[in-house]
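I'd like us to work through together how a protein chain folds, taking it slowly. To get us started, please write out a protein record for me. Go ahead whenever you are ready, and we will take it from there:
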Amino acid sequence: MAYQADDSAALKHIFDVARIEKFAADTKVVWPGFDDAGFRAHAMNGLDDLGIMQRMRQIASAYDRTLPQDYETALAVLRDMAPSIQLGFAGIVLSEFVLMRGLDDFQRSMEALAFFTRFGTSEFAIRPFIERDPGAALSVMHGWTEDENEHVRRLASEGARPRLPWSFHLKALIADPELVLPILERMKADPSLYVRKSVANHLNDISKDHPDWLIGKMLDWDQSAPETGWIVKQALRTLVKNGDARALDLIGASGKAEVRTEDFSVAPRNVSLGGKVTISARVKSSGSRMQKIVADYAVHYVKANGKSSRKVFKLKLIDLAPGESVDLSISQTIRDFSTRTHHAGWHKVELMLNGETVGETGFELTC
Protein backbone atom coordinates (compact mmCIF):
# COMPACT_ATOMS: atom_id res chain seq x y z
CA MET A 1 0.00 0.00 0.00
CA ALA A 2 1.65 3.24 -1.12
CA TYR A 3 1.77 6.03 1.45
CA GLN A 4 4.09 8.67 2.78
CA ALA A 5 5.21 8.83 6.39
CA ASP A 6 4.33 12.53 6.44
CA ASP A 7 0.69 11.55 5.84
CA SER A 8 0.31 9.90 9.24
CA ALA A 9 -1.83 12.65 10.73
CA ALA A 10 -4.36 12.28 7.91
CA LEU A 11 -4.15 8.49 7.80
CA LYS A 12 -5.08 8.38 11.47
CA HIS A 13 -8.67 9.11 10.51
CA ILE A 14 -8.87 5.99 8.37
CA PHE A 15 -9.35 4.20 11.68
CA ASP A 16 -12.31 6.24 12.89
CA VAL A 17 -15.60 5.21 14.49
CA ALA A 18 -17.20 4.58 11.10
CA ARG A 19 -14.38 2.25 10.09
CA ILE A 20 -14.63 0.30 13.35
CA GLU A 21 -18.41 0.01 12.90
CA LYS A 22 -17.84 -1.36 9.40
CA PHE A 23 -15.27 -3.89 10.62
CA ALA A 24 -17.76 -5.06 13.22
CA ALA A 25 -20.67 -5.31 10.80
CA ASP A 26 -18.67 -7.06 8.08
CA THR A 27 -17.27 -9.59 10.55
CA LYS A 28 -20.74 -10.26 11.93
CA VAL A 29 -21.94 -11.10 8.41
CA VAL A 30 -19.35 -13.85 7.92
CA TRP A 31 -19.50 -15.11 11.52
CA PRO A 32 -22.91 -14.54 13.17
CA GLY A 33 -21.50 -15.50 16.57
CA PHE A 34 -19.11 -12.52 16.57
CA ASP A 35 -19.23 -10.34 19.71
CA ASP A 36 -19.54 -7.11 17.75
CA ALA A 37 -20.46 -5.06 20.82
CA GLY A 38 -17.35 -6.22 22.69
CA PHE A 39 -15.23 -5.58 19.61
CA ARG A 40 -16.51 -2.02 19.23
CA ALA A 41 -16.07 -1.23 22.92
CA HIS A 42 -12.42 -2.30 22.95
CA ALA A 43 -11.55 -0.84 19.53
CA MET A 44 -13.04 2.59 20.33
CA ASN A 45 -11.59 2.95 23.82
CA GLY A 46 -9.77 6.31 24.01
CA LEU A 47 -9.67 6.48 20.21
CA ASP A 48 -9.31 10.27 20.00
CA ASP A 49 -5.98 10.19 21.84
CA LEU A 50 -4.39 7.51 19.66
CA GLY A 51 -2.15 7.90 16.62
CA ILE A 52 -2.40 5.94 13.39
CA MET A 53 -0.42 2.87 14.40
CA GLN A 54 -1.85 2.84 17.92
CA ARG A 55 -5.37 2.79 16.50
CA MET A 56 -4.47 0.00 14.14
CA ARG A 57 -3.00 -2.13 16.93
CA GLN A 58 -5.97 -1.48 19.21
CA ILE A 59 -8.40 -2.69 16.54
CA ALA A 60 -6.25 -5.78 15.97
CA SER A 61 -6.26 -6.33 19.72
CA ALA A 62 -10.07 -6.09 19.69
CA TYR A 63 -10.09 -8.92 17.13
CA ASP A 64 -7.70 -10.90 19.29
CA ARG A 65 -10.17 -10.63 22.17
CA THR A 66 -13.30 -11.46 20.23
CA LEU A 67 -12.38 -13.96 17.50
CA PRO A 68 -12.31 -17.73 18.17
CA GLN A 69 -9.37 -18.84 20.29
CA ASP A 70 -8.43 -21.46 17.71
CA TYR A 71 -6.00 -19.60 15.43
CA GLU A 72 -6.92 -21.42 12.22
CA THR A 73 -10.63 -20.76 12.82
CA ALA A 74 -9.98 -17.09 13.55
CA LEU A 75 -7.98 -16.72 10.34
CA ALA A 76 -10.81 -18.32 8.38
CA VAL A 77 -13.20 -15.64 9.69
CA LEU A 78 -10.86 -12.84 8.67
CA ARG A 79 -10.20 -14.42 5.26
CA ASP A 80 -13.95 -14.43 4.61
CA MET A 81 -14.27 -10.84 5.80
CA ALA A 82 -11.20 -9.43 4.02
CA PRO A 83 -12.76 -8.83 0.58
CA SER A 84 -15.21 -6.37 2.16
CA ILE A 85 -12.23 -4.10 2.90
CA GLN A 86 -11.45 -4.06 -0.83
CA LEU A 87 -8.02 -2.41 -0.96
CA GLY A 88 -6.78 0.21 1.45
CA PHE A 89 -4.52 1.03 4.34
CA ALA A 90 -7.15 -0.28 6.77
CA GLY A 91 -6.23 -3.81 5.73
CA ILE A 92 -3.09 -3.70 7.89
CA VAL A 93 -5.34 -4.57 10.85
CA LEU A 94 -5.66 -8.11 9.51
CA SER A 95 -1.91 -8.68 9.22
CA GLU A 96 -1.38 -7.16 12.67
CA PHE A 97 -3.77 -9.78 14.07
CA VAL A 98 -1.55 -12.44 12.48
CA LEU A 99 1.44 -10.99 14.32
CA MET A 100 -0.43 -10.83 17.63
CA ARG A 101 -1.78 -14.35 17.50
CA GLY A 102 0.53 -16.30 15.20
CA LEU A 103 4.19 -15.49 15.81
CA ASP A 104 4.75 -19.05 16.98
CA ASP A 105 2.87 -20.60 14.04
CA PHE A 106 5.30 -19.72 11.25
CA GLN A 107 3.92 -21.55 8.22
CA ARG A 108 0.27 -20.72 8.78
CA SER A 109 1.11 -17.10 9.57
CA MET A 110 3.29 -16.56 6.51
CA GLU A 111 0.50 -17.90 4.32
CA ALA A 112 -1.95 -15.56 6.04
CA LEU A 113 0.33 -12.53 5.60
CA ALA A 114 0.64 -13.25 1.88
CA PHE A 115 -3.14 -13.46 1.63
CA PHE A 116 -3.96 -10.37 3.71
CA THR A 117 -1.38 -8.15 1.97
CA ARG A 118 -3.72 -8.16 -1.04
CA PHE A 119 -6.19 -6.05 0.95
CA GLY A 120 -3.75 -3.57 2.47
CA THR A 121 -0.19 -4.45 3.37
CA SER A 122 1.62 -6.95 5.59
CA GLU A 123 4.93 -5.08 5.42
CA PHE A 124 4.93 -4.19 9.13
CA ALA A 125 3.60 -7.45 10.57
CA ILE A 126 6.09 -9.63 8.69
CA ARG A 127 9.16 -7.99 10.19
CA PRO A 128 9.14 -9.77 13.56
CA PHE A 129 9.02 -13.08 11.65
CA ILE A 130 12.11 -11.99 9.68
CA GLU A 131 13.85 -10.82 12.83
CA ARG A 132 13.18 -14.13 14.59
CA ASP A 133 14.36 -16.36 11.72
CA PRO A 134 15.75 -14.47 8.70
CA GLY A 135 16.64 -17.60 6.74
CA ALA A 136 13.22 -19.21 7.00
CA ALA A 137 11.29 -15.99 6.37
CA LEU A 138 13.38 -14.87 3.39
CA SER A 139 13.13 -18.35 1.86
CA VAL A 140 9.33 -18.08 1.84
CA MET A 141 9.47 -14.50 0.59
CA HIS A 142 11.76 -15.52 -2.26
CA GLY A 143 8.93 -17.73 -3.50
CA TRP A 144 6.59 -14.74 -3.46
CA THR A 145 8.69 -12.96 -6.10
CA GLU A 146 6.94 -15.03 -8.77
CA ASP A 147 3.41 -14.64 -7.42
CA GLU A 148 0.89 -13.39 -9.98
CA ASN A 149 -0.34 -10.74 -7.51
CA GLU A 150 1.77 -7.56 -7.44
CA HIS A 151 0.94 -6.95 -3.77
CA VAL A 152 2.48 -10.27 -2.79
CA ARG A 153 5.57 -9.63 -4.93
CA ARG A 154 5.96 -6.18 -3.40
CA LEU A 155 5.74 -7.66 0.11
CA ALA A 156 8.82 -9.77 -0.65
CA SER A 157 10.82 -6.56 -1.04
CA GLU A 158 9.01 -4.03 1.15
CA GLY A 159 8.67 -6.26 4.19
CA ALA A 160 12.42 -6.94 4.17
CA ARG A 161 13.55 -3.32 3.74
CA PRO A 162 16.31 -2.84 6.32
CA ARG A 163 15.14 0.69 7.21
CA LEU A 164 11.40 0.61 6.52
CA PRO A 165 9.68 3.83 7.69
CA TRP A 166 7.33 3.45 10.67
CA SER A 167 9.03 0.22 11.72
CA PHE A 168 12.13 -1.04 13.48
CA HIS A 169 15.39 -1.68 11.62
CA LEU A 170 16.23 -5.24 10.58
CA LYS A 171 19.76 -5.41 11.95
CA ALA A 172 20.66 -8.70 10.29
CA LEU A 173 19.80 -7.30 6.85
CA ILE A 174 21.57 -4.02 7.56
CA ALA A 175 24.69 -6.01 8.43
CA ASP A 176 24.52 -8.32 5.39
CA PRO A 177 22.53 -7.22 2.32
CA GLU A 178 23.56 -10.40 0.53
CA LEU A 179 20.81 -12.15 2.52
CA VAL A 180 18.09 -10.38 0.57
CA LEU A 181 19.86 -9.99 -2.79
CA PRO A 182 18.19 -13.09 -4.36
CA ILE A 183 14.77 -11.50 -3.76
CA LEU A 184 15.78 -8.18 -5.31
CA GLU A 185 17.49 -9.88 -8.25
CA ARG A 186 14.30 -11.75 -9.10
CA MET A 187 12.31 -8.50 -9.31
CA LYS A 188 14.79 -6.12 -10.95
CA ALA A 189 12.67 -6.07 -14.14
CA ASP A 190 9.23 -6.57 -12.58
CA PRO A 191 6.41 -5.34 -14.85
CA SER A 192 4.66 -3.56 -11.97
CA LEU A 193 5.76 -0.01 -11.11
CA TYR A 194 4.37 -0.62 -7.61
CA VAL A 195 6.86 -3.45 -7.16
CA ARG A 196 9.75 -1.62 -8.84
CA LYS A 197 9.34 1.34 -6.49
CA SER A 198 9.72 -0.99 -3.53
CA VAL A 199 12.82 -2.65 -4.98
CA ALA A 200 14.38 0.77 -5.63
CA ASN A 201 13.54 2.00 -2.12
CA HIS A 202 14.99 -1.19 -0.65
CA LEU A 203 18.23 -0.70 -2.56
CA ASN A 204 18.34 2.95 -1.54
CA ASP A 205 18.07 1.82 2.08
CA ILE A 206 21.08 -0.42 1.51
CA SER A 207 23.06 2.47 -0.01
CA LYS A 208 23.09 4.22 3.36
CA ASP A 209 25.10 1.40 4.94
CA HIS A 210 26.85 -0.33 2.04
CA PRO A 211 27.45 2.17 -0.80
CA ASP A 212 30.34 0.19 -2.29
CA TRP A 213 28.29 -3.01 -2.28
CA LEU A 214 25.38 -1.29 -3.99
CA ILE A 215 27.53 0.32 -6.66
CA GLY A 216 29.07 -3.07 -7.44
CA LYS A 217 25.67 -4.73 -7.82
CA MET A 218 24.24 -1.93 -9.95
CA LEU A 219 27.22 -2.18 -12.29
CA ASP A 220 26.21 -5.79 -12.93
CA TRP A 221 22.57 -4.99 -13.73
CA ASP A 222 21.66 -4.52 -17.38
CA GLN A 223 20.12 -1.07 -17.62
CA SER A 224 19.10 -1.60 -21.25
CA ALA A 225 15.89 -3.08 -19.85
CA PRO A 226 13.76 0.03 -19.11
CA GLU A 227 12.38 -1.46 -15.91
CA THR A 228 15.84 -2.22 -14.56
CA GLY A 229 17.25 1.13 -15.66
CA TRP A 230 14.48 2.91 -13.78
CA ILE A 231 15.19 0.93 -10.60
CA VAL A 232 18.93 1.64 -10.78
CA LYS A 233 18.39 5.41 -11.07
CA GLN A 234 15.99 5.46 -8.15
CA ALA A 235 18.17 3.16 -6.06
CA LEU A 236 21.15 5.48 -6.43
CA ARG A 237 19.31 8.68 -5.57
CA THR A 238 20.86 9.18 -2.12
CA LEU A 239 24.36 8.57 -3.45
CA VAL A 240 23.66 10.93 -6.36
CA LYS A 241 22.46 13.63 -3.96
CA ASN A 242 25.69 13.15 -2.02
CA GLY A 243 27.72 13.66 -5.18
CA ASP A 244 29.09 10.11 -5.38
CA ALA A 245 31.05 10.10 -8.66
CA ARG A 246 30.42 6.39 -9.26
CA ALA A 247 26.66 6.77 -8.85
CA LEU A 248 26.61 9.81 -11.12
CA ASP A 249 28.52 7.87 -13.75
CA LEU A 250 26.09 4.95 -13.50
CA ILE A 251 23.10 7.14 -14.34
CA GLY A 252 24.95 8.84 -17.17
CA ALA A 253 25.65 12.18 -15.49
CA SER A 254 28.66 14.08 -16.75
CA GLY A 255 30.82 14.48 -13.67
CA LYS A 256 31.52 18.05 -12.58
CA ALA A 257 28.98 20.35 -14.21
CA GLU A 258 30.50 22.98 -16.51
CA VAL A 259 27.93 25.73 -16.04
CA ARG A 260 27.28 29.28 -14.92
CA THR A 261 24.48 29.73 -12.41
CA GLU A 262 22.40 32.87 -12.74
CA ASP A 263 19.58 34.39 -10.69
CA PHE A 264 19.46 31.73 -7.98
CA SER A 265 16.79 32.95 -5.57
CA VAL A 266 14.08 32.06 -3.08
CA ALA A 267 10.89 34.09 -3.03
CA PRO A 268 9.56 35.41 -0.80
CA ARG A 269 12.55 35.95 1.45
CA ASN A 270 10.26 36.05 4.49
CA VAL A 271 7.58 33.40 4.92
CA SER A 272 5.23 32.31 7.69
CA LEU A 273 4.57 28.68 8.61
CA GLY A 274 2.06 27.32 6.12
CA GLY A 275 3.30 29.64 3.39
CA LYS A 276 4.99 28.72 0.13
CA VAL A 277 8.45 29.52 -1.19
CA THR A 278 9.57 29.25 -4.81
CA ILE A 279 13.16 28.28 -5.53
CA SER A 280 14.42 29.24 -8.98
CA ALA A 281 17.62 29.56 -10.97
CA ARG A 282 18.95 29.75 -14.50
CA VAL A 283 21.75 27.37 -15.42
CA LYS A 284 23.82 28.01 -18.56
CA SER A 285 26.36 25.62 -20.04
CA SER A 286 29.94 26.85 -20.21
CA GLY A 287 31.20 23.54 -21.59
CA SER A 288 31.96 22.35 -25.11
CA ARG A 289 30.00 19.08 -24.97
CA MET A 290 26.55 17.78 -24.19
CA GLN A 291 26.10 17.38 -20.44
CA LYS A 292 23.67 15.32 -18.39
CA ILE A 293 23.24 17.10 -15.06
CA VAL A 294 21.38 16.08 -11.92
CA ALA A 295 19.93 19.20 -10.30
CA ASP A 296 18.94 19.02 -6.62
CA TYR A 297 18.37 21.53 -3.87
CA ALA A 298 18.99 21.35 -0.13
CA VAL A 299 17.19 23.12 2.69
CA HIS A 300 18.87 23.59 6.07
CA TYR A 301 15.94 23.31 8.49
CA VAL A 302 16.35 25.10 11.80
CA LYS A 303 16.06 22.76 14.81
CA ALA A 304 14.75 23.53 18.29
CA ASN A 305 18.30 24.01 19.59
CA GLY A 306 19.04 26.63 16.92
CA LYS A 307 21.27 24.36 14.85
CA SER A 308 20.21 23.16 11.41
CA SER A 309 19.56 19.87 9.66
CA ARG A 310 20.18 19.58 5.91
CA LYS A 311 17.72 17.73 3.67
CA VAL A 312 18.28 17.25 -0.06
CA PHE A 313 15.39 17.19 -2.56
CA LYS A 314 15.34 16.11 -6.19
CA LEU A 315 14.82 18.91 -8.68
CA LYS A 316 15.44 17.88 -12.29
CA LEU A 317 17.59 15.82 -14.65
CA ILE A 318 18.93 18.13 -17.35
CA ASP A 319 20.41 17.48 -20.79
CA LEU A 320 22.36 20.65 -21.55
CA ALA A 321 23.97 21.40 -24.91
CA PRO A 322 26.98 23.76 -25.29
CA GLY A 323 25.84 27.34 -24.72
CA GLU A 324 22.31 26.25 -23.80
CA SER A 325 20.55 27.54 -20.70
CA VAL A 326 17.64 26.14 -18.73
CA ASP A 327 15.35 27.66 -16.13
CA LEU A 328 14.77 25.66 -12.94
CA SER A 329 11.90 26.31 -10.58
CA ILE A 330 10.08 24.48 -7.81
CA SER A 331 7.70 25.51 -5.04
CA GLN A 332 7.54 24.08 -1.55
CA THR A 333 4.96 24.66 1.18
CA ILE A 334 6.54 25.14 4.59
CA ARG A 335 4.31 23.13 6.91
CA ASP A 336 4.80 20.76 9.81
CA PHE A 337 4.74 16.99 9.31
CA SER A 338 4.80 14.11 11.74
CA THR A 339 8.48 13.74 10.82
CA ARG A 340 9.45 17.43 10.82
CA THR A 341 8.55 20.37 13.06
CA HIS A 342 9.64 23.75 11.78
CA HIS A 343 11.28 26.43 13.88
CA ALA A 344 11.72 30.13 13.21
CA GLY A 345 14.96 31.42 11.77
CA TRP A 346 17.11 31.66 8.66
CA HIS A 347 16.86 28.58 6.44
CA LYS A 348 19.79 28.28 4.04
CA VAL A 349 18.99 26.84 0.61
CA GLU A 350 21.62 25.33 -1.69
CA LEU A 351 21.47 24.58 -5.42
CA MET A 352 23.36 21.40 -6.26
CA LEU A 353 24.47 20.18 -9.68
CA ASN A 354 25.86 16.65 -9.88
CA GLY A 355 26.19 16.67 -6.10
CA GLU A 356 28.23 19.89 -5.91
CA THR A 357 26.85 23.07 -4.33
CA VAL A 358 26.92 25.85 -6.91
CA GLY A 359 24.82 28.49 -5.18
CA GLU A 360 23.43 29.49 -1.80
CA THR A 361 20.51 31.66 -0.71
CA GLY A 362 17.70 31.20 1.81
CA PHE A 363 14.58 32.48 3.52
CA GLU A 364 13.53 33.67 6.96
CA LEU A 365 10.77 31.60 8.55
CA THR A 366 8.34 33.06 11.10
CA CYS A 367 6.42 30.52 13.19
